[in-house]
Amino acid sequence: MMNEPVDAGQDFERAFPPLQKAIEKDYGVRSVRSPVQSGYFGDLNGAEIRIDESLGPEDSLFTLLHLFGHTVQWNLEGVRDFNIKPGNLSEETIQEVIDYEHEACRYSMRLLQDQGFAHLEPWLSEYSAADLRHLLHYYRTGEQLGAQPFRKSDEPMMQPLEIPPFQAKVLRWRWDGIVV
Predict the structure, then answer these.
(1) Residue 152, CB-side half-sphere exposure with 13 Å CA sphere
(2) 3-class SS at 98?
(3) Average pLDDT over the chain, rounded to whole?
(4) Phi then psi dihedrals of residue 11, to 5 deg
(5) Model-level pTM?
C-alpha cells in the first residue's frame, strides 16, 4: 500500500521530547543536541546519540529515530562497518546496506508506535527511503546531496520490528561513518 503525501504541518517539534525521553528512560540511551562534524546530521556510540544542534525539527526527529534504530543494532550485533569506498559497491554489499538500513527504520517504527506517534510512520518511511537512496548514491559516487533530493511521497510503508531487550553500552563514535 502506498502512503499519502506527508503533511508538511506535522508537529515534529512536539514529538521530539517524548521520544527522546523514552529512548533514555526505556533503553538507557542518552541523546543530546551538540555540534557534529560538518557534513553529518548526527553520531552514535551505542549509549549516546548526538544530534547536530543546527538541524530543524524534521531533520532532528529523523536523526534521533534513525540513530536509535542503529543503536539497537549496535547493542545487539556490535558495530557494523561496511568500509565502503565510494565508487566500489558490489551487489552483495548494496543488499547488505539496504537490509541494515531497513532494519534500523523498522526499530524506529516500533518506537513511534510504542510512544503514540504511529501517525508519523508514513513520514518516517518516506524520509528513510530517501535517506537510503542518498546513502547508496554517496557510496556509488562519493557525492553527498542529502536526503531531500531523493524524497518521494509514494513510498511503501515499512513494517515495525519488535525492539529486543538490550543493555546500552559505549562502543565507539562513528564521526566519519554516519551519513544521514
Answers:
(1) 10
(2) helix
(3) 87
(4) -90, 80
(5) 0.89
